[in-house]
Design a protein that fits this description.
The complex is a heterodimer of chains A (110) and B (117). With 110 residues, chain A is mainly beta. Chain A is built from no helices and nine strands. In chain A, the strands form two sheets. In chain A, strands 1, 3, 4, 7, 8 and 9 form a six-stranded mixed beta sheet that branches. A three-stranded antiparallel beta sheet of chain A has the order 2-6-5, with no helix packed on it. Chain A is globular, with a radius of gyration of 13 Å. The model of chain A has no long low-confidence stretch (mean pLDDT 97). In chain B, a hairpin with a 5-residue loop joins strand 4 and strand 5. Chain B contains no helices and eleven strands. Chain B is mainly β and 117 residues long. The chains are: A mainly beta (110), B mainly beta (117).
């Protein structure tokens, strides 16, 4: 299984909205509503931000939202803040009964 | 509080064996699958495989099948990741995480493994 494809970097100014894409295949993203997103600050462990395509865990800001269309999932961060600057990774359950992660996206707040 | 605590950083030579651990606490150990995730320096996350503590059902991602061994000792609520012969390319940060449905909800703090002659 190949890594899901994400843009290497996305940037935006404070207050703006940005969207990160995550493209897979019908064997992962397109085949299951089990897409999740993780935020990772430098030197820290990943943190779950979105699960099951569009659900937010308790404590995660409602500025984060997720969606999916076909083989591509998306994470949108609205009202961008300095603290949102981090790496973001998508993940999907797969037809081999394991999980695959994306290539990762670095978000920069200008 | 649900938490996963991993063993400390390791420095090993090529060809040596290694077993790192991840202890779960604050929840029923057989509630979630355990997974191991590799992050090579400056790179993305890779799921190596997952194991269900209840019956040790283990599923490896294709790239890691035969390269590592994932195991669990539910009597001490601990999961393990093991290498029989390390390579320099195994140098990475390794995270354990609980997997439930389609996501990794709780993450350990990570174990840095450095393999160098």
């Amino acid at each position: 299984q190949s890594a899901l494809t994400q843009p290497a970097s996305v940037s935006g100014s404070p207050g703006q909205s940005i969207t990160i894409s995550c493209t897979g295949t019908s064997s992962d993203v397109g085949g299951y509503n089990y897409v999740s997103w993780y935020q990772q600050h430098p030197g820290k462990a990943p943190k779950l931000m979105i699960y099951d395509v569009s659900n937010r865990p308790s404590g995660v800001s409602n500025r984060f939202s997720g969606s999916k269309s076909g083989n591509t999932a998306s994470l949108t961060i609205s009202g961008l803040q300095a603290e949102d600057e981090a790496d973001y990774h998508c993940s999907s359950y797969t037809s081999t009964s394991t999980y695959v992660f994306g290539t990762g996206t670095k978000v920069t707040v200008l | 509080e649900v938490q996963l605590v991993q063993s400390g950083a390791e420095v090993k030579k090529p060809g040596e064996s290694l077993k790192i651990s991840c202890k779960g606490s604050g929840y029923s150990f057989t509630t979630y699958w355990f997974g191991w995730v590799r992050q090579m320096p400056g790179k993305g996350l890779e799921c190596m495989g997952i194991i269900y503590p209840g019956d040790s059902d283990t599923r490896y991602s294709p790239s890691f099948q035969g390269q590592v061994t994932i195991s669990v000792d539910k009597s001490i609520t601990t999961a393990y990741l093991q290498w029989s012969s390390l390579k320099a390319s195994d140098t990475a940060m390794y995270y354990c995480a609980t997997f439930s449905g389609g996501y990794a909800g709780i993450w350990g703090q990570g174990t840095m493994v450095t393999v160098s002659s």
